[in-house]
């Protein structure tokens, strides 16, 4: 064909970020209301061109922060059997890659993984080829390694998941959600670099191995135990676990004053609990609400505490 299309949704980690890098289990959900879209159109002179909000022009002139995207485009076209487009060989067709995303960048919501997944799907759609889950995972991981060094793979799995999952060491299993889980999300408006956050936990672990491993183990226990609470639809227990996880993430150095203030505001507004989600240092907070109306109230309180934007996500019972 002349044109391929692909899309992928955002993700949020409920429990286990950072500890998951060291093999601990983590719990994550798809966030369908935020998506990345990619189209690849074959045609024009040999070479790849990109159209995106960050940059428009030939791939060779793309800024450094687009390197994971360029990696995803080249690797996906190669794996889809369209290597001649990727390599821009003389006489080959060119390709125009258009990327659009409503997922805020560097906010712990899996934007880089979702963009890579959308590109992989567009490349296989263009080739008219079947894209299996493992190939998709590999392609997203290839881009994620460029984006942040040592990705656990949880983002790559969750942007392709259709429901809540437990993730450990690359493998996923669906988990049961016993009652709809209503979450208020807040974006601090500040980017948090996953590479920097993961690097700072690693540095802390080198300096203070015993105490850091104890904290990471506790994050693992909280994640594992949350599976029962989520299955039972026990909102109070899920919230309490989130607040404890946030306190530990603060101690491993990946929170910020702004995140702490937003978490405190959510709890003061009656959330059962709240925590940062994703890499931290900036990015987003999630808080457990008792109803959609309550989530809106918590959102207002989080905006009063300085959140740039808030929204409500309902994880359906499943
Ligand atoms: C990023 O969404 C989650 C981290 O645990 C990093 C990773 O798992 O690759 C911080």
TrEMBL record:
One of its GO terms (biological process) is isopentenyl diphosphate biosynthetic process, mevalonate pathway. InterPro entries: GHMP_kinase_C_dom, GHMP_kinase_C_sf, GHMP_kinase_N_dom, Mev_gal_kin, Ribosomal_Su5_D2-typ_SF, Ribsml_uS5_D2-typ_fold_subgr. Residues 86-155 form the GHMP kinase N-terminal domain. Keywords: ATP-binding, Cytoplasm, Kinase, Lipid biosynthesis, Lipid metabolism, Magnesium, Nucleotide-binding, Transferase. It holds the Pfam family GHMP_kinases_N. Signal peptide: none annotated. Residues 227-306 form the GHMP kinase C-terminal domain. GO terms for molecular function: ATP binding; mevalonate kinase activity. One of its GO terms (cellular component) is cytosol. Gene3D superfamilies: 3.30.230.10, GHMP kinase, C-terminal domain. Pathway: Isoprenoid biosynthesis; isopentenyl diphosphate biosynthesis via mevalonate pathway; isopentenyl diphosphate from (R)-mevalonate: step 1/3. This is Mevalonate kinase. The lineage of its organism: Bacteria, Bacillati, Actinomycetota, Actinomycetes, Micrococcales.
